[in-house]
Design goal:
heterodimer, A: alpha+beta, BirA Bifunctional Protein, domain 2, eight-stranded mixed beta sheet, 13 strands, about 20% strand, globular, B: mainly beta, SH3 type barrels, OB fold (Dihydrolipoamide Acetyltransferase, E2P), six-stranded antiparallel beta sheet, about 55% strand, flat
């Protein structure tokens, strides 16, 4: 059983490489241990230290939660299409059928692309894995048949709220009244398990609403590109023409997230604002981190316009191998 | 009080002063957001299902319950009647909302009955239980994925899909959570 798994995993990883190599992306291999991380308030990191053998001084290092920081440093000095298959680590994360603290991330950057351009790449990529392995583009997963042949469903967050919850998302994003509107809906729909708690920020309320009323209704019989997330959720994606939204999408297959994509923010000041705001939030993190204040510096000199995609390889393997749990594709259990 | 992140399946929670059992729990991290748990709760008084999404760091109120060992005697159509093994007192457990459990209650078997404020609120079933097949019908048309199967009845009257080689009189293991056949027991 396990031997069979390793054979299949190795096979699909090779196909992943083939796809990008054929498209002239360069495979890069950035370190997993880093003295800096991009501060992200939703992510806890693993911390370790290097001990100097001469004076026994310790230097703090982190196991990177994604290769983003170092891949972007590469791009700043050497623009070009690159990809990486990287072990990534998330601490303080609940283990479950979709999560393991150590996982494998595929991340790629395409120059002069925006987030819309990246949709065709991921579509072609997933179809490539199926056709090259001699499989049908209709994939059986649990009780669902997922159609990879038809164009992936592209749906804006705004339309998803309208279609599945009959809510006008714009009213939730109003800087003055948005939070009140969300609170009212949560109360009316009896979704306010914990009211007036210190954690009830706009983002938490918004996500409670999204996870309760919208995400469970996303179609499962075709991959879904859920795009244009509220810019109120801080990320390193570019703000859209309508400043209430960001140029980013998440790919959902069978109701769970497989990949996310941005038109990458290239404006030095916007990146700096993000780093400062998230560093402030990080004060409440279980594992304090050393923010890389110099990270924003790399955006000072014509950082290339590009789009980046990060994809959880184990989650794709779950779909390809028809496994209900990530435990089925990670033979070495974390606990 | 416990953190929502440590909620597990089968746990009892109070929500707006009503007792609930957690029947499903999944962790979710929405794109670039913080961690949440998505739970499916069943109201222990009304049987109604309530779905909630709770941020992992939030505190939720867990219910202090007592567990008693009791033997299942019979069903009177409305209640399931148990007898406490310690003091022979009877426990009446309403069938409504617990039909799925009734399928695996065999007269004479002993179970853990969960009590909250002097009322029985749950019966803990072993994860897998062995039953004797009492009736075996003809083979159903096999689907290509799981191979050929047929439906058999076990001693409690519950019907389950099994492989063709299972016959009346066989003992089979059933997963009480999913209600599915697991394997034949020799």
């Amino acid at each position: 059983m396990e031997h069979e798994y390793f054979r299949k995993r190795s096979y699909y990883i090779q196909l992943i490489r083939d796809f990008f190599i054929k498209k002239d992306y360069i495979e890069v291999d950035t370190p997993v241990l880093s003295p800096f991380v991009i501060p992200e308030s939703g992510i806890e990191v693993f911390k370790t230290s290097y001990i100097n053998p001469v004076n026994f001084e310790q230097k703090e290092l982190y196991l990177l939660p994604s290769p983003e920081i170092l891949m972007k440093k590469l791009l700043a000095s050497e623009p070009g299409n690159i990809f990486q298959i990287a072990k990534s680590f998330r601490n303080g994360e609940q283990t479950g059928s979709l999560h393991n603290p150590e996982f494998t991330m595929l991340e790629w950057y395409t120059m002069d692309f925006n987030y819309i351009d990246s949709i065709s790449v991921i579509q072609e990529f997933l179809r490539y894995l199926l056709t090259e392995s001699g499989r049908s583009l209709n994939v059986e997963y649990g009780n669902t048949l997922i159609d990879f042949k038809a164009p992936f469903i592209k749906m804006t967050m705004h339309d998803a709220f309208k279609d599945f919850a009959e809510i006008d998302l714009n009213t939730l994003l109003d800087p003055d009244s948005g939070e009140k509107v969300i609170t009212k809906i949560l109360t009316e729909k009896n979704l306010n398990f914990t009211e007036n708690s210190e954690y009830s920020t706009w983002e938490v309320k918004f996500n409670t609403l999204f996870l309760s009323l919208v995400e469970p209704k996303l179609p499962k019989n075709r991959p879904v590109i859920l795009m244009d997330y509220p810019s109120g959720i801080p990320t390193l994606a570019k703000t859209a023409e309508n400043p209430l939204y960001s140029e980013r999408w998440e790919l959902y297959i069978s109701g769970f997230e497989i990949a996310n994509c941005y038109t990458e923010e290239t404006d030095y000041q916007a990146v700096e604002r993000f780093i400062l705001r998230e560093t402030e939030q990080k004060k409440y993190a279980a594992v304090p981190v050393q923010s890389d204040y110099l990270f924003s510096e790399i955006f000072k000199n014509n950082f290339p316009e590009c789009s980046g995609v990060a994809l959880g390889i184990e989650r794709v393997l779950m779909i390809l191998l028809n496994c209900k749990s990530i435990r089925g594709v990670i033979p070495f259990l974390f606990f | 009080m416990i953190k929502a992140g440590s909620i597990s399946k089968g746990m009892f929670l109070l929500f707006k002063n009503e007792p609930y059992i957690v029947s499903e729990r999944e962790f979710v991290n929405p794109g670039k957001g913080s961690a949440f748990v998505r739970v499916k709760l069943k109201n222990l008084k009304t049987g109604l299902v309530n779905r909630q999404v709770i941020k992992s760091q939030e505190s939720v109120e867990d219910v202090d319950v007592e567990t008693k060992e009791a033997q299942f005697l019979y069903s009177d159509g409305t209640d399931l009647i148990f007898m406490e093994t310690e003091n022979y007192e009877q426990i009446h457990f309403p069938i409504k909302g617990n039909e799925d459990k009734q399928a695996f209650l065999r007269e004479g078997d002993t179970f853990q009955v969960v009590i909250w404020e002097n009322s029985p609120i749950d019966i803990k079933l072993p994860y897998k239980m062995a039953f004797t097949v009492t009736e075996s019908e003809n083979a159903a048309r096999g689907d290509t994925v799981t191979g050929a199967t047929k439906i058999v009845t076990i001693e409690t009257g519950y019907k389950v899909k099994v492989p063709l080689f299972i016959k009346a009189g066989d003992k089979i293991l059933i997963n009480t959570e999913t209600g599915d056949y697991v394997e034949r027991v020799n």
